[in-house]
Amino acid sequence: MDKQQFNKPIFKHDCDKCEFIEGFMLEEKRFDLYRCESDSPGISYIARYSHRGGDYWSMPWNILKYLNAEGYTLLLSEVQKRAKLREKK
Ligand SMILES: [Zn+2]
Q1: pLDDT tens for each residue of 15-27
Q2: Partners of 46 in the beta sheet?
Q3: Which of 2, 32, 62, 73 meets the CB 3.0–4.6 Å disulfide criterion with 48?
Q4: What angle do CA 24, 10, 22 make, to 5 degrees?
Q5: What is the pTM of this model?
Q6: Distance 35 CA to ligand 1 centre (A)
C-alpha cells in the first residue's frame, strides 16, 4: 500500500466533529484514525475499521494519555502513540 492511501479515510464515517488524523495498518487490518472534540467527554480518539456504524474503537484522550500501553492491545498502543504525537502540536 503506498503512502498516499494513509492520508485519507477509506471507511464511511459521519461525525462532523471528527478530524481525520491518518490511516494505518495493524496486523494486516486497516484503521482510520480520528480525533473527535466535543463538550463531553472532550477529546476522543476513534479507530474505525469498517463502514458499519458501530465498527470502531474509541477512548477519551484524558484516559488514553495516562495509560501504560504495554500490556494492552496492539491497537491501543498504536492509537496512543499517534494521539500523543497529535496532542503535542
Ligand atoms: Zn466525531
Answers
A1: 999 999 999 999 8
A2: 34, 58
A3: 32
A4: 35
A5: 0.80
A6: 7
